[in-house]
Write a structure and sequence with these properties.
It comes from Fodinibius salicampi. Keywords: Cell membrane, Membrane, Transmembrane, Transmembrane helix. This protein is an alpha+beta fold and about 280 residues long. It has 3 domains: about 10-105; about 125-170, SH3 type barrels; about 175-270, 2-Layer Sandwich (Alpha-Beta Plaits). It has helices at about 1-50, 60-80, 85-105, 105-120, 160-165, 190-205, 245-260, and strands at about 130, 135-140, 145-150, 155-160, 170, 175-185, 215-220, 225-235. The strands form 2 sheets. A 5-stranded antiparallel sheet has the order 4-3-2-1-5. The protein has a 3-stranded antiparallel sheet with strand order 6-8-7, covered by helices on one side. β2 and β3 (about 145-150) form a beta hairpin. The longest helix is centred in the first third of the chain and has 49 residues, at about 1-50. The chain is rod-shaped and about 140 Å long. The termini are far apart.
Length: about 280
């Protein structure tokens, strides 16, 4: 009994000694692959830091490269030590598992995939003012699964990346310009050309309104009771102190005061005059 155990131990010892060079080779190969992956991840991180890609994506791509390197290292390790069938099963099983997880977490996977493509298209960056599906606000942070938007009302909204990728997206600060407009109604008897000149002068002298592109004013339309005039102007969208609401309010108030001083009649003061002709009525018994 003891002799059998000793012989078995000696046999396994010689088998291990014969297998040891292959094991060392496999470990060295795994180490080399891991180091290559680490160097590539570090180099990619440096490239991304010099690019305009949001910082939120930097760590994701770095970890992705490291994860791929580790997976390749495991497959290589199994093949070198003679477990090629197991490595093939692992690759096939990994693909099947990915499919099963894809169906189980469809929405999460869709958001991550959309965030991955948004990282390359870069339709917006942090501090940009965007609008999507009726949600308007400033971008506070960008993650792979969602984007943090703070609305003017102070509400923090976390918009899924899939919505940003599939729905129309409006970026008001991509070129640094944002246009504002408002309308004013005056009486048909008033001089519209003079009113347009007064509005244009008031808008151009409003703090926060850019001189280029230039502001303009025009007749928007005719209503049954008044002539509708419209003014357009541009502001610096990246100027947080002179936002659109503040500049628009100042421009509207300046136009109101200018038109009042010039004696114009506003739409709220316009009424329709009716002329009543006398009617003879005869009563018969």
């Amino acid at each position: 009994m003891i002799d059998t155990l000793i012989e078995g131990f000696i046999s396994e010892y010689y088998s291990f000694v014969a297998f040891l060079p292959r094991l060392i080779t496999a470990l060295v190969a795994v180490g080399i692959v891991y180091l290559i992956g680490k160097v590539l991840a570090s180099g990619l991180l440096q490239v991304l830091k010099r690019s305009s890609m949001p910082e939120a994506y930097h760590s994701y791509f770095s970890k992705l490269v490291k994860g791929i390197a580790i997976f390749i290292g495991i497959i290589l390790f199994l093949n070198v030590i003679g477990y090629g069938t197991l490595s093939a099963s692992l690759v096939a099983g990994g693909g099947l598992t990915a499919v099963m997880l894809g169906f189980a977490f469809k929405d999460i996977g869709e958001n991550f995939l959309a965030g991955f493509f948004l990282a390359f298209s870069r339709p917006f960056n942090t501090d940009d003012i965007i609008e999507t599906d009726g949600i308007t606000g400033k971008v506070k942070s960008i993650q792979l699964r969602h984007t943090h938007i703070r609305t003017p009302e102070g509400c923090d909204v976390f918009v899924p990346s899939a919505q940003l990728f599939t729905q129309p997206l409006f970026n008001y600060t991509l070129d640094g310009l944002r246009r504002g407009s408002f309308t004013v109604g005056i009486d048909y008897a008033d001089d519209t050309n003079r009113a347009l000149d007064i509005m244009l002068d008031c808008v151009q002298n409003t703090p926060g309104v850019l001189q280029s592109p230039i502001a303009n004013s025009s007749i928007k339309g005719f209503t049954p009771n008044y002539v509708e005039l419209q003014a357009f102007f541009w502001i610096n969208a990246r100027d947080q102190e002179m936002g659109l609401a503040r500049v628009k309010t100042s421009a509207m108030n300046n136009c109101r005061l200018g038109l009042i001083e010039a004696g114009f009649t506003f739409s709220s003061n316009v009424s329709t005059a009716l002329t009543m002709s006398p009617v003879d009525v005869q009563l018969h018994e």
